[in-house]
Specification:
Rossmann fold; alpha/beta; seven-stranded mixed β-sheet
């Protein structure tokens, strides 16, 4: 699993592109520069790894385009050591970026095949995320883990999951794409403990694979 001088050069070009698209958070840019995206996809697609496009991975899922990974990461406005719950581990690329930002990452994947492979990959690359196989709509209710300072959803939800909002600390932030075929990126700030004490901010349309419930154990 090599990360060559050429790969690092391509990453710097990618980061310059992200700056040009308005990404200004220095910690996000440093993490995007550090994480070897080409190691999170099939080797036959490696030549596309640092282009700004989503690419297919196992189980009919995708690895998000770098600009979307950076955009969601920036919307989190997270400080080092904050506890972040990620819904939709997928390839593990977004997970690794969050780890590289110094965050304590708890990540949930519903596809057993992806969960097994990605957990091994993250460990091999020394990204210390806690990985779970589970239903993302339910989050992680174990008291040992939550509540969370930040929650990031990397798939398109039909609606904002109330169970996830309950796992967010007061003052915490959720970043989530909501909608059916096309989603709208929302940033939700939990202002208090009541059901209606949320500030919702809108950040335009986007396109993600759908967020599904229940664990898929495969064949």
């Amino acid at each position: 699993m090599e990360d060559t001088f050429k790969h690092r050069g391509l990453r710097e070009q990618m980061v310059n592109l992200l700056r040009g698209k308005g990404i200004g958070d220095s910690r996000v840019l440093a993490a995007m520069s550090a994480v070897p995206r080409h190691l999170f996809m099939d080797t036959v697609l490696e030549y596309l790894a640092y282009e700004d496009r989503a690419l297919p991975i196992a189980c009919g899922q995708t690895i998000s385009q770098p600009s979307m990974v950076a955009f969601q990461s920036e919307l989190l406005d997270a400080e080092p050591e904050m506890k972040v719950l990620e819904i939709g581990t997928g390839s593990g690329y977004q997970t690794a970026v969050l780890c590289a930002m110094g965050l304590k990452v708890y990540t949930v994947e519903r596809q057993k095949e992806l969960y097994t492979a990605t957990k091994k990959l993250l460990s091999r690359l020394n990204y210390n995320a806690k990985c779970f196989l589970g239903d993302g709509y339910k989050g992680l209710t174990e008291v040992d883990y939550g509540p969370y300072d930040r929650i990031i959803i990397t798939c398109g939800a039909r609606e904002v999951p109330r169970q996830l909002l309950r796992q967010l600390k007061t003052g915490g932030v959720m970043v989530i794409p909501v909608g059916d075929e096309t989603q709208e990126m929302l940033r939700i700030v939990k202002m208090g403990e009541k059901e209606n004490e949320f500030l919702q901010q809108r950040y335009g349309n986007c396109n993600f694979v759908p967020m599904l419930d229940k664990v898929n154990f495969g064949g």
